TrEMBL record:
Identification of the protein by name: L-lactate permease
GO cellular component, one term: plasma membrane
Record membrane topology: Multi-pass membrane protein
Keyword Protein transport attributed: no
Species of provenance: Photobacterium damsela subsp. piscicida (Pasteurella piscicida)
Length: 288
């Protein structure tokens, strides 16, 4: 979160310097850009700053709020026939023993960012930005129209992710990871980050990638005689890399920007810096 904020700040200064931006073919010398007052800029950035602040406060374990939002103490239980429904004091909704199997599903209502902080920040932003009821209604209408079709694609992508992760040690994603490691042997450190990227590509989460492949990375490091801490660090780097090509993230961002049917086009271009990122990480690992 902090890294993203720092990266955004650096990107702003780089963009102001014109680095990485296409040059305009025609320059209108008569066009002047009005300098906005600092208060106006601050008000425009306020929702983002509030969002970052709430995320930091709710994600740092030592502050105690994270524990409250993840409290699994049972509050309500109900047998639905096909599964057991459990609701905790932190409003964690869980289905267990689905169809008499070990399959389960849980949703952390207060911890998942959908409600806190995103919905909370939306409610704060309406009076903060002095939006009228008509403007608020227009924003909601446009947002719903944008997410309608991507929502269907995103649900399909998430179902595919779950299928790829079903099967425990014999799941498709685990089998793929083991096959990669057997091919590389002692040279695994040059490819460890890409396994982490594979996990994030399918799941859309660096955390899930680390949970899925962390044990495998540790086993591979022990088997081929490489430092475990270094390989696990490469796994974490890979988890971050994978978000660059994760279809879930690309669909979500495309929805926000109003871009339709460009997922393949975007992945073809983001995969290049991801590969370069992995090469840089591998080179750096040689000196650690």
């Amino acid at each position: 979160m902090i890294g993203g904020a720092i990266g955004m700040t650096i990107s702003i200064f780089i963009a102001k310097a014109g680095i990485g931006l296409s040059k305009e073919t025609e320059t209108n010398t008569e066009k002047t850009v009005e300098k906005l007052p600092f208060k106006t800029v601050l008000a425009a950035m306020a929702p983002t700053l509030i969002l970052i602040a709430i995320l930091i406060v709710t994600r740092i374990q030592q502050l105690g709020i994270k524990g409250l939002l993840n409290d699994a103490t049972p509050l309500f239980n109900l047998h639905l026939g096909f599964a057991n429904l459990n609701i905790s004091q932190a409003l964690i909704i869980k289905l267990s023993d689905v169809f008499g199997t070990n399959a389960s599903w849980a949703y952390k209502t207060l911890y998942v960012p959908a409600l806190i902080p995103f919905f909370v920040v939306v409610l704060i932003s309406i009076p903060l930005l002095k939006m009228s009821s008509a403007q608020s209604k227009q924003v909601v209408t446009e947002t719903l129209s944008r997410i309608k079709m991507p929502f269907i694609a995103l649900v399909g992508a998430l179902i595919m992710v779950k299928f790829m992760m079903i099967g425990g040690d014999h799941s498709p994603i685990i089998t793929t990871g083991k096959a990669f490691s057997e091919l590389t042997g002692k040279n695994w450190q040059f490819f460890a980050s890409y396994l982490g990227a594979l996990g994030a590509f399918f799941s859309g989460s660096a955390t899930v990638s680390n949970l899925t492949f962390g044990g495998i990375q540790q086993t591979i490091a022990h088997t081929v005689g490489l430092p475990q801490d270094m390989i696990l660090a490469m796994q974490s780097v890979g988890g971050a890399m994978g978000n660059m090509v994760c279809i879930n993230n690309i669909i979500a961002v495309s929805t926000i920007l109003g871009i339709a049917n460009k997922e393949g086009f975007i992945i073809k271009r983001t995969v290049i810096p991801m590969v370069i990122y992995g090469i840089i990480a591998a080179v750096v690992s040689l000196f650690i």
